[in-house]
Amino acid sequence: MDLFNSLRISSSALQAQRLRMDTISSNLANMETTRTPEGGPYQKKSVVFRPVGTSFEERLDRSLRGAVQGVRVDRILADTSEPKLVYDPSHPDADETGYVAMPNINLMDEMVDMKSASRAYEANVTVVKASKRMALKALEIGR
């Protein structure tokens, strides 16, 4: 594995974790959104990752070479679970019984996901910095 391969792997992870963090921040921003253009409350989104290389041949080739792979975002899934019903008859979106359909987002779960994404991002930044130091040290050998 060359030095640039580790940089490519880390950069793919940085992009994936950034998108994961964007999705988490969107979930947190819409915790109280009861009305969306699609109708109903906001639906929680989650990111699904998958290894780089889509075709069978690519995966087989990488497996045979023992090469490690980067990651990319496969899709962003919307949570299809039932919304949380909160009794608030004064809310403009309350139904005739006084219940409001709220997004099914748990603040603690989102905070844990955010911390996990942040740590993964930091770890990949550390890998990039270590790779950069290794490249600079390799250049010093020739002096």
Automatic annotation (TrEMBL):
Query: Which InterPro entries would you find in this protein's record?
Result: Flag_bb_rod_N (IPR001444), Flagellar_basal_body_rod_CS (IPR019776), Flg_bb/hook_C_dom (IPR010930), FlgC (IPR006299)
Q: In what residue span(s) does the Flagellar basal body rod protein N-terminal domain sit?
A: 7-34
**Highest taxon of the lineage:** Bacteria
What's a Pfam family this protein contains? Flg_bbr_C
Residues of the Flagellar basal-body/hook protein C-terminal domain: 97-140
Provide the alphabetized UniProt keywords.
Bacterial flagellum, Cell projection, Cilium, Flagellum
User: Where is it localised?
Assistant: Bacterial flagellum basal body
Stored NCBIfam families = FlgC
UniProt family annotation: Belongs to the flagella basal body rod proteins family.
Please describe the quaternary structure of this protein: The basal body constitutes a major portion of the flagellar organelle and consists of four rings (L,P,S, and M) mounted on a central rod. The rod consists of about 26 subunits of FlgG in the distal portion, and FlgB, FlgC and FlgF are thought to build up the proximal portion of the rod with about 6 subunits each.
The identity of this protein, by name, is Flagellar basal-body rod protein FlgC
Q: Which gene encodes it?
A: flgC
